[in-house]
Design goal:
binds magnesium ion, 2 domains, EC 3.1.3.77, HAD-like_sf, single chain, Transcription Termination Factor Rho, Rna-binding Domain, Chain A, Domain 1, metal-binding, Rossmann fold, binds ligand L4RZE5RM, HAD_sf, magnesium
């Protein structure tokens, strides 16, 4: 049986953690203050800043210095807070547009996408990165624009936090397929646990390139089937 829907994590699963932490995060972190100064009056950025103020318990439209300070602290602490992820998405979009940034997906990700599509599955992305950030990353990969392969995107704003079973329940309702026909692939056990609690099938992606155990070593038992990359999931996962 083919999974009706495959849902993929990004960092460490479709794409290199090194790219996210070594390229994307520092790029956005260095530009937060300048971005707010240049775009703080524009609707999209204003909404983000107002959300930062709301979370901080400040009246909307206050001193943007406070919002910049909060956003910078969240970036340094790698907080998966929606307004930070949305601001990163805006900054990265400008970086892709200027040619300073490119996206990254592992080569096996491309092969896995093809295999799932040929088998009739729909493919979704679920990341803490904003939907815009996800679309831009997949639009600018070293293999070209992969967006047409994807049926949809979910982030913490549209679905909720990745460690909450309710988020996976919300995605199930949105994709409209039976819960046992949804497969989630991620490198993070806490995310897989939440998906399994919601009734999904799971695939733990433990990539040697990401520092995961080599072939001879066994990852700790979690009850989640283990695969060395996404192509292995596409070829071997029992659905
Ligand atoms: C969509 S690219 C940036 C990924 C990101 O911002 C992030 O925080 C990683 O989250 P993930 O859920 O993909 O591990
Ligand atoms: Mg991940």
């Amino acid at each position: 049986m083919t999974a009706a829907a495959v849902v993929l994590d990004v960092e460490g699963t479709t794409s290199a953690t090194e790219h996210v932490y070594g390229v994307l995060f520092p790029y956005a972190r260095a530009r937060i203050a300048d971005w707010v100064a240049e775009h703080g009056h524009e609707k999209e950025t204003r909404a983000i800043l107002d959300d930062v103020d709301r979370i901080g318990g400040r009246p909307a439209g206050g001193d943007d210095k406070e919002a910049v300070r909060a956003l910078t602290e969240w970036a340094d602490a790698d907080r998966k807070v929606a307004p930070l992820k949305e601001l990163q998405g805006l900054i990265w979009t400008a970086g892709y547009d200027s040619g300073e940034l490119s996206g990254h997906v592992y080569a096996d990700t491309l092969l896995a996408l093809r295999k799932w599509l040929n088998g009739g599955a729909q493919i979704y992305i679920y990341s803490s990165g904003s939907v815009q950030a996800q679309r831009q990353l997949f639009a600018h990969t070293q293999f070209g624009d992969l967006r047409s392969r994807l049926s949809g995107h979910f982030d913490t704003r549209t679905a909720g936090g990745k460690r909450s079973p309710d988020s996976y329940r919300a995605i199930t309702r949105s994709v409209g397929v039976p819960v046992r026909q949804v497969l989630f692939a991620s490198d993070t056990v806490a995310e897989l646990d939440a998906a399994r609690t919601a009734g999904w099938r799971t695939a733990w992606v433990v990539r040697p390139e990401e520092g995961g155990p080599a072939d001879s070593a066994r990852p700790p038992a979690t009850g989640h089937p283990v695969y060395r990359n996404l192509l292995a999931v596409a070829e071997e996962a029992q659905l």
